[in-house]
Write a structure and sequence with these properties.
By secondary structure, the chain is mainly α. The chain has 14 helices and no strands. It has one domain. The termini are far apart. This is Flippase-like domain-containing protein.
């Protein structure tokens, strides 16, 4: 029989391991990719390029459009919450979105949980219901990115296939995993066991708790199909992603050589870089730092052959500045959000 003290130590080790896997891996990836990014790069030359080449008026326009996208996200989410009987103000929801991006910089993927908890606590609503509406919000983003990606594939298939072809072993590994009989057999077995437990012990505490959680998630998720203002919701979705794409276009216009990419290759080149950087956010990292720059450098590299001077150093300078400005703005807006929440709570007390 295991001694209680040994059992406690074992639990602490498991908790530490989970913490390291959840937060240590993204930090390690971020630091590693950033190191590879600056390795062999002349930092003085990079700063000189930014200082002499960048038109910061376009960067300002980029920031305004990114903030506009976040406000559109809050407005879209408000429609879903209102259909659930949760009357949150646009101001509070916008602050919750600002806070989400700030939290994700420190704890990747935890920002959405914080946003759900903040709104659920503030409006005394079930966490699972609010979380379900947030899941629907994120699913809509996934579908939007998929549509943009497919459209970009249609217009610039060779460039994107070249990008995917950089890691043929990894792609074949993913395909073999998706077609593995072991994977689908395990999923089928787990499904059968779950259904059997549900039917065999319908009144058990665990099954009741899971049933309540599922009902809350489904209620928040399915409201999008029955709520009023579907066309308004669709409009906010278009505004959201339009702001992101146009914002990246403004960033391109801030440097002469990246602006030349759009001049020579048109809107397709911008979409290719947008898709690559969007897909890079799937890599676990702090706020996309590291993967985002690499994806941008690769995307620009597809069109650099006919543009003298658009080398890796120049592309690195552009990518670092574009993401750094957004990261700094997320930190500032996040600090403002948390300060407002603290002052609001104090005033209510």
């Amino acid at each position: 029989m295991q001694h209680p003290r040994q059992h406690t130590i074992s639990n602490h080790r498991i908790s530490l391991l989970r913490f390291l896997l959840k937060y240590g891996v993204p930090v390690t990836i971020t630091v590693g990719l950033c190191y590879m990014l600056v390795k062999g790069t002349d930092l003085h030359e990079m700063w000189h390029t930014i200082r002499t080449e960048c038109d910061f008026r376009w960067i300002g326009a980029n920031l305004l459009l990114v903030i506009g996208a976040q406000v559109a996200r809050a407005a879209r989410w408000r429609l879903q919450l209102r259909a659930l009987g949760i009357k949150a103000s646009l101001w509070v929801l916008t602050l919750s979105v600002f806070g989400t991006y700030a939290v994700n910089l420190v704890f990747p993927r935890l920002g959405e949980i914080w946003r759900t908890g903040f709104i659920a606590e503030r409006h005394r609503s079930p966490f699972t219901t609010v979380f379900g509406s947030m899941v629907a919000d994120r699913l809509a983003d996934t579908i939007a990115v998929a549509i943009i990606t497919l459209a970009t594939f249609a217009m610039a298939g060779p460039q994107l296939m070249s990008y995917l072809g950089q890691n043929p072993d990894r792609i074949s590994g993913i395909l073999s995993l998706l077609t593995s009989p072991l994977l689908w057999g395990s999923i089928a077995a787990c499904t059968v066991i779950a259904v059997w437990l549900y039917l065999r012990y319908p009144d058990s505490k665990a099954v009741s708790s899971l049933r309540n959680i599922w009902k809350g998630l489904w209620k928040g998720f399915a409201v999008i199909t029955s709520m009023r203002g579907k066309w308004e919701w669709f409009f906010y979705t278009l505004v959201l992603w339009g702001c992101y794409i146009l914002g990246l276009g403004c960033a391109f216009m801030s440097f002469p050589l990246t602006a030349e990419v759009i001049t020579q290759h048109g809107f397709t080149a911008l979409l290719v870089c947008f898709v690559l950087t969007s897909l890079s956010m799937l890599v676990p990292s702090n706020g996309g730092i590291g993967p985002w720059q690499w994806a941008m450098i690769f995307g620009l590299g597809l069109y650099s052959a006919g543009i003298p001077g658009l080398d890796k150093g120049y592309m690195t300078s552009f990518a670092n500045l574009a993401l750094s400005v957004q990261t700094i703005s997320s930190i500032i807006l996040g600090l403002f959000t948390f300060a407002w929440i603290a002052l609001d709570k104090r005033s209510k007390k």
